[in-house]
Fold this protein.
Amino acid sequence: MKLQKWTLAFIGIGTVIGALIGITIIYSTTGNFNISSLLGFITAALILIVINVIKVFVKKDNTPEIDERIKKNVMLYYLYSSTIFIVVLFLGLAVLSFLNFEIVEITYLWIIMIAYLLISGIGGFIVIRR
Amino acid sequence: MAVENNIRKIRVERGIKQITMAEDLQVTRQTMNAIENNKYNPSLELALKIVKYFDIPIDQVFILKEDE
């Protein structure tokens, strides 16, 4: 419960750890250590940590960040958003198949995946605030 | 059948602030507001916590409205 108010900071630290693991794997396979992307991740993590520290010092009351209503709302949101995503993906694939496309570039799949993560992440953040 | 409650009425009668009650029950102020406005039905656990908080019978806090 006491650690709950530091969620954003933990997300930031997790991001940097994940980035470090990813960049190390890339380094071990290709020999290139992408320092610029690591700096980007560190900047993002620092922004999250600073926002978290400000929030903790500004908040006066002792209410939790997340409770049963918010958990339920977030669960419903992800249920709907993931279902909509799968339906859109299915329709997209159906249209492509109908247009006789037989090959789809992996890059496009990554774009769709990252767009979904981004949109659902922002949506989840909004749902938590409501 | 809808569930309604007298939480706001009882709370105001006892002079308890919404934020104080939210802190004591460990829920957000928005959730407390949603419960008081019958926009959100609390879980059984939270409902029992509310009843214990006021120390009165459950039927004086929550009312099951029959469909007309």
Notes: The two ends of chain A are 20 Å apart (CA to CA). Helices of chain A lie at 7-30, 35-58, 68-98, 106-129.
